[in-house]
Amino acid sequence: MNTLFIYLFFTPIFVIALLSLNFILAVNKPDIQKLSPYECGMNPLGTAREKFSIQFFLIAILFIIFDLEVIFLFPFTTALYFSSFYGFWVVMLFLIILTIGFIYEFSKGALKFVPTKTFNNSPY
Fold first, then answer.
1. Is the whole-model pTM more than 0.90?
2. 3-107 is classed CATH 1.20.58
3. Which of 23, 30, 84, 101 has its CA 20 to 30 A from that of 17?
4. What gap in Å lies between CA 86 and CA 84, rounded to an integer?
């Protein structure tokens, strides 16, 4: 039995079993307070359709890039003993390209947050 078989067979079974157990045993008593939107103890300001800074998207894209990096590096690290010198340098090239992309994004100022307008009716 290898690792791939465990990931592809036992993990979905384990997840389905835990979700089923939660569905069966969880207490479900909805009321007005539980169903209301919660934003850090404050009343929501404005609508969900308000414009916000593009910098949030840039940070999200950067986060996704580094999540993908971890996803691609995990199989390499588990098979590092069996990979060849060629495999090692392919991963190093991948990391170098990601590092160059990060330096480019940092040099263009994509990670700098500028002050934005605040709400006048905010208590903070």
1. no
2. yes
3. 30
4. 5
